[in-house]
Every structure is written in structure tokens, then in C-alpha cells.
Design brief:
Number of helices: 6
Strand order of the largest sheet: 3-2-7
Distance between the termini: 5 Å
Low-confidence stretches: 173-210
Shape: globular
Largest sheet: 3 strands, antiparallel
Strand content: 5-15%
Structural class: alpha+beta
Radius of gyration: 17 Å
Helix content: 25-40%
Mean pLDDT: 79
Length: 210
């Protein structure tokens, strides 16, 4: 989509972001993380162009503890995409806010056409500087995205429901049912099995968002 038309108007970008946040809310309500939110994992469904979050093969139950053969707790296996993955996830300790960091940078990509590695950062704070590439963006939306991509997880939205509530004010209507292609229930009883399960992908006719 961006290859054909370039960066999206901010109203369209926030609508996509809100629908993906609804999908993440469904996962977070099951105490699970997606761990690889990025433009490649969002498809636009034909014929209505509804954004669908795919590739739940990396879903992990966030509250469980993996124990090695010596009986010691181990860090989570690092899964994610450089640039869209925050520091705590790279260290093997992803939280709900890690998914929202990736979603925020995905929305910024939709607005700017730039991947995270192409955006400058403030050398003193580590904040990602992107607003100069979208001068007409809604200030309220910009504040939502800035909070989502803060370097430190505790400062971000605590879960998808909180971020979605902030986005609702930008789209002026309630987002519909979760835009998500995932199992009806997410297995969380044995987190050591993740991420070995295969990705779940749509069987409907789709168009990549890129």
C-alpha cells in the first residue's frame, strides 16, 4: 500500500492502528504477547481493506517462567524485529508495553514511510524524533504515539486497552470486533513450547500493507 500510494493520511493511519490495538487487546486479555508487531505482519483484507494482524507463531504467555534443566529461571527467547523491538524485549523480558512500542513505530511508519532505523533519536533522552516528517499530524495523536514509543516501558501505555482508549478520541467512534487472525483461545499453560508453534496466517485473499 505504501509502495503504491506513499505515507497514509493521519486519520487512516490511526484507524489502522486502533484496529490492530483491538487485536492486541484480545491477546493481552489472555495474558499473551504478540512480540512481532510490524508492517509486514499487518495485511489489508479484500474486499473491505480491513487491517488484520497476522503471524501469531511468536505469541508467548507473559506471566509464566521458563526453568532450565538446572532448575533456574531463564530469560524469554528473544523474538522480534530490530527497530520495532524495544530494549526490554531485546533483553528477553518483553511486557505488554513492548507490543505497543512496536505498534507505535508501525503507525509512525504508516505516517512517514520511514522504518525506525531511518529516524533520528535525541542523544540525551533516546526519544525517537519523527514529528518533523508529518507536520500536519494531529497533536493529540502525536502525543499518543510518543508515549507508545518511550524508551522506558513503565512510561508507556500499560496495555493495549489503555492505548486503544487514547486512540478512540482520535477516530471519534468505537472500534469494532478485534481485527485478528488467531486461534479462539491462546494456549498459555506451557510457555516453554513457544515460539515453536507455526504462524497462523489468513487464508482469505489479502494485500500486503507494504
Amino acid at each position: 500500500r505504501l509502495s503504491r500510494s506513499g505515507p497514509l493520511p493521519w486519520a487512516e493511519a490511526v484507524d489502522i492502528g486502533a484496529k490492530v490495538a483491538t487485536a492486541l487487546q484480545a491477546a493481552h486479555d489472555e495474558s499473551s504477547l504478540h512480540r512481532d508487531v510490524k508492517p509486514d505482519n499487518i495485511i489489508l483484507r479484500s474486499p473491505d481493506q480491513k487491517p488484520i494482524l497476522i503471524d501469531f507463531g511468536a505469541v508467548r504467555e507473559t506471566m509464566g517462567t521458563v526453568v532450565n534443566s538446572q532448575g533456574n529461571p531463564t530469560s524469554s527467547i528473544v523474538i522480534g524485529t530490530p527497530g520495532f523491538m524495544p530494549s526490554e524485549q531485546a533483553a528477553g523480558r518483553p511486557v505488554f508495553a513492548s507490543d505497543l512500542y512496536a505498534l507505535g513505530l508501525t503507525a509512525i511508519y504508516l505516517l512517514t514511510g520511514k522504518i525506525p532505523q531511518e529516524l533520528p533519536t535525541d542523544p540525551q533522552t533516546g526519544d525517537i524524533l519523527w514529528r518533523q516528517y508529518v507536520p500536519k499530524v494531529s497533536p493529540t495523536l502525536a502525543n499518543v504515539l510518543d508515549r507508545a514509543i518511550m524508551p522506558h516501558a513503565p512510561v508507556r501505555f500499560s496495555n493495549a486497552r489503555e492505548m486503544l482508549s487514547a486512540l478512540h478520541g482520535q477516530i471519534g467512534s468505537t472500534v469494532g470486533s478485534p481485527a485478528v487472525n488467531m486461534p479462539r483461545t491462546i494456549p498459555v499453560s506451557n510457555p516453554s513450547n513457544f515460539p515453536t508453534s507455526p504462524p497462523i496466517r489468513s487464508t482469505s485473499s489479502t494485500q500486503p500493507i507494504l
